[in-house]
Design brief:
With 656 residues, this protein is an alpha/beta fold. 40% of the residues lie in helices and 16% in strands. The longest helix has 26 residues. It starts with 13 loop residues before the first helix and ends with a strand.
Length: 656
């Protein structure tokens, strides 16, 4: 949450707050209570009273200067009431379950997967036919890439939404999505959907009405009649997609205005200074909640608010908007959670995490430092970053991933890089060169994304297997290199399965799918290298998942073992994480502890055997004979513990 807020000054407005509640509640009751059974209205009323003070404060600092603020406040609460009325009874039952167990998502049974519906299954109906595959893998959290209606051609992989209430025709209908959500829920799988709320596509109805000259809808976006304000803003704005277009504004000759377009010129930034935008997006959010969406991934949270003289990222108002939405969801759909997507400085990422803001957050820092450790064969940066920035508020959790649908950026702190003994700028360039195969001796096969030719800055695209060296090893037909690549895949997945938080697998990585270079031949995709790791799911390769003589079988069975270890060991259930010094710069170590149940996880990030002194293990509380829960081997470490190349071990610690 934001450190500096004006909420301490709102004491003088307590009278307004009490008066507003006293006036609005009877009006809401008169309008809506007869549409619900008394217990259901009482539940809404109870939650509204509980949340009202917090909600009022956020909305007042955002919109209190509007002459019609109290009208907007009542409209917002009326929307919440109507969506509670419309909420299916099965979801209201889920609300009650979640309220009785608000930290359900911190359970060790949580294992996540993500995919594009069309690339994994074909459409939403066929997705239901693939639930067996998810259950076999142990998945309890399924993130579907945006299935909403988008423009044909350029649409940023689904992140340029034309309608939040319509599905891409090729994928099905909104009814199909609701049916899928219901079936997943009955199989114990929570559905996760992206809520792209920083911008819409230029084909959204609001944008089209703005283009038609309707002033009301032009005010839904940030539009300027000339370059005066854009030039002033751009003095402090970084370019997000320099390959796409310079600056953050796009001129539209039809209306003679410059439109704020942070990302692509067909993605128009919404104007959250307008309370109508807040209100309308709330309705879209609650509509999705009522389709059975249990977790909303809030896209591009850092960019919601704009202020001249800043970089327009991570401003306090962005936090207040999310906090207000969180409060309204607690009132109208309390089973739903928020997950933040903020690929910014690690310290800024953590500010979005909180029970009153986003209960879940992507952990881009862990992703970046894990790839760093494979490249450097050292854990200095990994250990420093985790010790300093892994801890988050209780009743919240990380979502840990090796890679996702997006590119891999080097989202770690310069301070941590310097502690590890590297120059931040040079080191990021090294990592980009390593994972794009330019650096001599690299095992990786990645492609640069949004490369700045002048500075050399870039992010990286590629599947987990290709970045871990499997593509190169298979081309060389070298069994030893294949073995090392598989070990790297197992190592990084071992860490995300056990370190604390929800592990997230991009479907295809569990069967070691390689880069798909066919995107070069598709006009709508060839300019975006991220499609190299968004290939169509290979069901023929998946058919080999139980055959240990094949690479897909070895990887799949290895991941199954890690998932079972996570889900069956009480040490990983709502547990604490403590990072330790292993005495070896090539071995990363941490304890997971749940009351008197504890394990020590060790990861050798090098292709050479590495040792931990026996006396060091005893110092950490281990006995001379220990069990590795990954390999099942009993290990006697009187003098030392020897870890094989890229070995990941989970050592059982004696109960006290």
């Amino acid at each position: 949450m934001s450190e500096a807020t004006p909420f301490d000054r709102i004491e003088e407005n307590l009278g307004r707050e009490r008066t507003a509640l006293a006036r609005i509640l009877p009006r809401l009751e008169e309008r809506f209570s007869a549409k619900l059974a008394p217990p259901q209205w009482d539940a809404f009323n109870r939650r509204l009273k509980k949340e009202f003070s917090f909600l009022f404060q956020r909305l007042f600092v955002l919109y209190g200067k509007e002459y019609d603020f109290f009208y907007h406040l009542e409209c917002i609460l009326a929307s919440a009431a109507q969506f509670w009325i419309d909420r299916p009874n099965e979801l209201k039952a889920l609300d009650a379950l979640r309220e009785s167990d608000p930290v359900w998502f911190t359970s060790n049974r949580m294992v996540g997967a993500m995919c594009y519906v069309d690339l994994f299954a074909g459409d939403l109906k066929q997705m239901r036919e693939k639930i067996w595959y998810l259950k076999e893998l142990g998945i309890t959290y399924l993130h579907l890439m945006p299935p909403f209606k988008v423009p044909n051609g350029d649409n940023d992989g689904g992140y340029a939404v034309s309608s939040y209430r319509e599905i891409q025709p090729a994928l099905g209908t909104m009814e199909d999505l609701a049916q899928l959500a219901t079936e997943l829920r009955r199989h114990g799988i929570s559905i996760v959907i992206d809520f792209v709320f920083n911008h819409t596509s230029d084909e959204h109805d609001w944008a089209q009405r703005a283009l038609a000259g309707e002033t009301e809808y032009q005010e839904f976006y940030r539009m300027y009649p000339d370059r005066m304000m854009p030039d002033r803003f751009e003095k402090s704005l970084p370019e997000i997609f320099p390959d796409e277009h310079p600056g953050s504004f796009t001129y539209h000759s039809r209306i003679g205005k410059w439109i704020w377009t942070t990302f692509h010129n067909y993605q128009w930034d919404l104007n959250y200074e307008n309370p109508l935008v807040f209100s309308h997006m709330l309705e879209e959010m609650l509509f999705l909640a009522n389709q059975g969406v249990e977790i909303l991934r809030l896209d591009a949270v850092a960019f919601l608010w704009k202020k001249e003289g800043t970089n327009c990222q991570n401003l306090p108002q962005a936090h207040w908007i999310i906090q207000a939405y969180n409060s309204l969801v607690r009132i109208a759909a309390p089973a739903m959670l928020f997950k933040s997507e903020a690929i910014v400085h690690p310290d800024e990422v953590r500010k979005y995490i909180g029970v009153k803001e986003c209960q879940l957050s992507y952990n881009p820092q862990l992703m970046a430092v894990l790839w760093n450790s494979l490249a450097t064969r050292e854990v200095k940066l990994l250990k420093s970053a985790m010790q300093r920035r892994f801890t988050i508020p209780p009743e919240c959790d990380w979502v840990n991933y090796i890679r996702c649908h997006d590119d891999i950026g080097w989202a770690f702190s310069d301070d941590d890089v310097e502690v590890a003994g590297f120059d931040p700028l040079k080191h990021r360039r090294f990592l980009t060169q390593f994972y794009t195969g330019i650096f001599e001796g690299s095992f990786a096969r990645g492609i640069p994304f949004q490369e700045d030719r002048q500075t050399g800055d870039a992010r990286v695209s590629g599947t987990c297997a290709s970045l871990c060296g499997l593509e190169q090893a298979i081309e060389a037909n070298d069994p030893k290199l294949i073995e090392l690549a598989i070990d790297r895949i197992m190592l990084v997945h071992g860490v995300i399965m056990t370190i604390g938080g929800i592990p997230l697998i991009y479907l295809g990585d569990e069967i070691a799918m390689l880069n798909d270079y066919g995107f070069h031949n598709v006009i709508d995709k060839q300019a975006d290298s991220r499609w190299v790791h968004r290939g169509k799911f290979d069901w023929e390769q998946a058919a080999l998942r139980n055959d240990m003589s094949t690479v897909p079988g070895r990887v799949h069975q290895g991941l199954l073992r890690l998932i079972q270890l996570r889900q069956q060991n009480v040490s990983f259930n709502t547990a604490e994480t403590e990072f330790v010094d292993t005495g070896n710069n090539h071995i990363f170590g941490y304890f997971r502890t749940n009351n008197d149940h504890s394990v020590l996880c060790l990861a050798n990030v090098s292709e050479s055997p590495q040792r931990v002194e026996g006396r060091h293990l005893r110092l950490l509380g281990l006995r001379k004979t220990i069990v590795d829960l990954v390999s099942g081997q009993f290990i006697t470490a009187i003098q030392e513990l020897l870890l094989k190349p890229y070995q990941f071990a989970v050592l059982s610690v004696p109960r006290k």
